[in-house]
MSMEG_0569 family flavin-dependent oxidoreductase
Amino acid sequence: MTAGHVPVAVVGGGQAGLSVSWYLGRAGVEHVVLEAQTPVHAWADTRWDNFTLVTPNWHCRLPGYAYDGEDPDGFMTRDEVVQWLAGWLQTFTPPLRNHTRVSTLRPLAAGGFELTLATATGEEVLTCEHAVVATGGYPIPVLPAFAASLDGSITQIHSEQYRNADQLPEGAVLVVGTGQSGAQIAEDLHLEGRQVHLAVGSAPRVARFYRGRDCMTWLADMGLYDKAAPEYPGGKAAIEKTNHYVTGRDGGRDIDLRRFAVEGMRLYGTLSDGKDARLTFEPSLRHALDKADAVYNSILSDIDAFIEREGLGRSVPPATRYSTVWEPDAEVTELDLAAEGITSIVWAIGYRPDYRWIEASAFDGGGRPMQNRGVTEVEGLKFVGLPWMHTWGSGRFLGVDRDARYLADNIIDAHQRKSALESSALRASAHHHLAVAR
């Protein structure tokens, strides 16, 4: 076990942690970035083959670097995102330590933190004055408790493990969850000709394009991605909802679950229980579809109001609304996997936080960091890259730069104040010794 000290330790080498590093490096603040694997590995390792961004390419901005390709209103594929990030990493040289996992982080009584590092060569101890946690908001995939009691012949994977239809055994597939990943994986399997059964959750949806522009471009112009979380319409309940489902595939389009049903996809309400080959669903499908469509049309109304306020009506296509193309005849509440030929399940019901390695009183009852723009009440402990850390743009490419700059400035200011105090103390000491010598 070896020991060392650095003023700032950034835990996590994804785009958020490296963005903080970019600003610290520019200011000449000594620091280290500790990455358990390799930089931005998650983009290559946890996205499916046909993954695309759901936000337009022009949203992609990082410190000193922005998308400048030929399709700013398009949607980069997984491989294009990996390539774009690789280009960013060529523009600077962060003090990065790959394959270095932080197993514990604890505050020291005298101030600062002690980090225990697990490396390929053993264990190390590092101390620092500032610790920036950039490990992502929700790293642990969620599976229901009853998953283990299902028939062992059924292949079960989490959405982060899904790559393509061919990795699953022949037969029908049940996708559970309709957040962004679940809805897009269901679409991917559907387009590959698989019989898809989809357990529909409470996620809302949004139109891809409206009145001649991408809806997210309209929302950006309306300032919604810049509005601080406490000021966001709908308050805490609104910001804790699952993100709206939509896709950037094939140039971008709506995800319409009702249309999928017309084309043969089988839809159900929320999956509530299961054992062996039998599953139970809540009778919530009709309500979930109606609510998602209501949100869809509500967003269109908000855009219409903005267009009216800005006097843009004559320069854009007329207003429209979504009307349903399918209604469930009855709510199916029980399903026999074997009878339906379902051989695999893709769980897309989200992730949970896991900060058990941080021994500090900085978390609420749900294990989420208590922070204000990433700054906690624990002196020197900060977070970056969290969804809704400051705005709707936080946790996305659109907001990472701003959040990282704010935290880096906070650290730089503290570093400069400490340096000034130390210089003042040295000068006072020098004057004292000179006076004694005289």
